[in-house]
Amino acid sequence: MRKRSRRSRAVVAVGSAAVLLGVAGCGSGGDGSPAPDGTRAKAKPSASPASAWDRSPASVAAVGDSITRGFDACSVLSDCPEVSWATGSDKEVNSLAVRLLGASGAARRSWNHAVTGSLMDDLPAQMTKAAVHRPALVTVMAGANDACRSSVADMTSVADFRASFEQALRTLRTASPKSQVYVASVPDLKRLWSEGRTNSMSRTVWKLGLCQSMLADPDAVDPAATARRDEVRGRVEAYNSALEEVCATDRLCRFDGGAVFDYAFGTRQLSPWDWFHPSRDGQARLAEIAYRGVTAAKAVT
Asked: Residue 267: which of 207, 197, 217 has the closest Cα?
């Protein structure tokens, strides 16, 4: 099994990397995105008879952490679920739910059960809530907080991370066996540190306790600090391998192939308050990545 995420071909607390995607618009082209008036585009991908995966699911439930809650995207230290990449209503973001269901459909048939600060250990309980809706699709973006701890020693072990994800999938399968699952990789936290470390405001916010395993002493580049950050990055890579491996055991689960980890978040895609969580633009990039992954003819490998 690969040790680090493949580059994709085809945001925190943090909860998600080299896919440079086009601006997520609300065009009425043949990609299934909604038209400017909120109606669905005529040309919409459908499930292939040869595949169990439905490329146009009729409802969406989201689980995960602060990224899926739009934390720090609209105001400092606050959730902003309307800009969520998965279920938000903001036109600039053009969320996955809006792209799949249209604006009115997303308002009626999408649900956000993500919770800021969640660890992978919290995912089974979120899955229980999501399963009540019997959603056609459940999106998962979790794991950043398992690496973003007060210290490297406090990071969640890979074994515990894997076990919690396996339990979350079992929970969903028991209550809603036909729900599809789209799993986003954990973002590259070291890249986010690199982008935000030169901003004075970000360093002030980081001192409040944000992701200290990676962000403590942001200006330090001595061997010890470098080794610490590399250890966090390595743990994230191991988490992503676990997500991929567990997802591969479920025929109705798709991993993003490392697309979020590989995405090159720049300052425009990061919160202007913490330079770590996705901004509106960053949320739009995540929505585009997810839409491509869900509607692709086959999963990225």
From this structure: 197
List beta partners, residue 270. 278
Question: How many other C-beta atoms are found inside a 10 Å radius of the C-beta of residue 229?
Answer: 22
pLDDT digits (tens, 9 = 90+) for 212-264: 999 999 989 999 999 999 999 999 999 999 999 999 999 999 999 999 999 99
What mean pLDDT do residues 114-141 have?
98
**How far is 270 from 268, CA to CA, in rounded Å?**
6
Q: How far apart are CA 69 and CA 78, in angstroms?
A: 9
Q: Hey, what are 25's tokens?
A: 């618009």
User: C-alpha 39: how far from its chain's center?
Assistant: 26
Domains of the chain by residue range: 60-295
C-alpha to C-alpha distance for 294 and 38, rounded to whole angstroms: 20
> Would you say residue 14 has pLDDT above 80?
no
Looking at domain 60-295, its CATH class is: alpha beta
R_g of the chain, CA atoms, integer Å? 18
